[in-house]
Design a protein that fits this description.
The chain is 75% helix and 0% strand. It has 251 residues and is mainly α. Helix 5 runs antiparallel to helix 6 and helix 8 runs antiparallel to helix 9. The radius of gyration is 19 Å and the shape is globular.
Length: 251
């Protein structure tokens, strides 16, 4: 079985939705409780320990989302005609997504970390730096690449982006090992395994399964902006469900 890039996007979106439902709905319910309404009344009937295991399991499954997005980012960079327009889209959606991300994850207007589009935009700038460094065929290439990677890791750490330096290392592995598909997937997913080892039992490595099935083709084309809009919209919807259906107030 082979998967196109569009199929990978749908898999990543499904994993992200499962992950964020566990975080935004179930974990907040367990921590804060809620008011009336049928959904809230139903959740009160579930054993909290059982609900906790369900929420944790959903978050485990969701760990596969970012490695897939990081992989697709490198594919997009390798095939785009204009990386600047590609990066501009990321920056625009980073701005659009910041408030929904903060509301959903932190239950307030300003959150403690930045959303995934900030990470991906920084990753694109890093990949452009790598491409510039590849123009040199001596020791300078490796020196410049190391400096670019260090700068990207430092920047994402400084602004506290969602995946931080680990996200940059993951994207870098997917790009630098691109000439060997197995090594490429293994390298990126190894970083993801290490990143999720503490809180997620290394479940980020689950992304290796669909990535090894990647066909290299785009697949059936639709409106590409569905994939861009999904992130802020699903976060906003989950927040509104928590606020108006489960009656968990903002902090």
């Amino acid at each position: 079985m082979k998967l196109s890039s569009n199929a990978l996007k749908w898999i990543a979106m499904a994993a992200m939705l499962i992950d964020h439902t566990g975080l935004v709905i179930l974990q907040y319910w367990l921590e804060y409780g809620g008011g009336g309404g049928a959904p809230g009344n139903f959740l009160w009937t579930v054993n909290p320990e059982t609900l906790g295991y369900v929420a944790y399991g959903m978050r485990i499954l969701g760990r596969a989302a970012f490695p897939i997005y990081g992989f697709l980012l490198t594919e997009g960079f390798l095939h785009t005609r204009d990386w600047r327009k590609y990066c501009l889209r990321m920056v625009v959606f980073a701005a659009v997504s910041e408030i929904p991300f903060s509301l959903a994850v932190y239950n307030g207007w300003i959150g403690g970390s930045r959303n995934i589009y900030v990470e991906l935009a920084a990753g694109l700038v890093m990949l452009h730096g790598f491409k510039k460094a590849e123009a040199y065929y001596d020791a300078r290439q490796h020196i410049y690449m190391a400096l670019v990677l260090a700068a990207a890791c430092g920047f994402t750490w400084l602004i506290n982006s969602d995946y931080g330096a680990d996200g940059m290392l993951m994207i870098a592995a997917f790009y630098l090992l691109r000439r060997n598909r197995t090594a490429r997937v293994a390298g990126g997913c190894l970083v993801s395994f290490a990143d999720t080892l503490g809180a997620g039992m290394g479940a980020g490595a689950l992304a290796a399964v669909p990535l090894l099935m990647y066909s290299g083709e785009k697949g059936r084309q639709g409106n590409k902006y569905i994939f861009y809009w999904f992130y802020p919209l699903h976060l906003l919807v989950l927040f509104l469900i928590r606020l108006f259906v489960l009656h968990i107030p903002m902090m």
